[in-house]
Amino acid sequence: MQTKEEVRLSLKQRAKQVAPSTYILEDKASVEALLKSPAYSTCTTLFAFSPLPSEVDISLVLEDALRHKRLALPRCLGETLEFLFVERHWDTRAQPSALGVLEPLGGNVATPDEHSLMLIPAMAYTTTGARLGRGKGYYDRYLSQFPTLFTMGICRSYQLLESLPTEGWDVRVREVLCNGVIYRT
Question: What class is the 4-184 domain?
Fold first, then answer.
């Protein structure tokens, strides 16, 4: 099996071979499925992310959550990931992190509970919930503190793989959403 770094490199190459119009259609299908999903409709707080170009564009989900739920977005502090509650127009008061992720500058710290849903980006997923992140371990460390948190990975078709190299500390997600299809793990 390939190493994590080999898989990441391969995925970066595959991303360059996929037409942007494919992303648009897949992202739309995933956003529609997410908004109709029981996990989203029943949550009161959405823990999400500001997507990078290589990630599913969940902008419409963020907008919906700002209107109908509480929305929390991540910020990296050293080796630690924390989530802050944000309000409308949060992005006008945000800045890119060292990793290029748009992060809120301030807000109250959000702690997940039994009514929360966390959407988690990744380089790749399997249908059984294995996740390959960007290699810094932020989400694995955060999720290990909240083992009962309902988590949903979201990715594009080229990022859904049959298997991934994993380590003992890698935290799986409960559901994976890809191209409008939800896989329950």
Answer: alpha beta
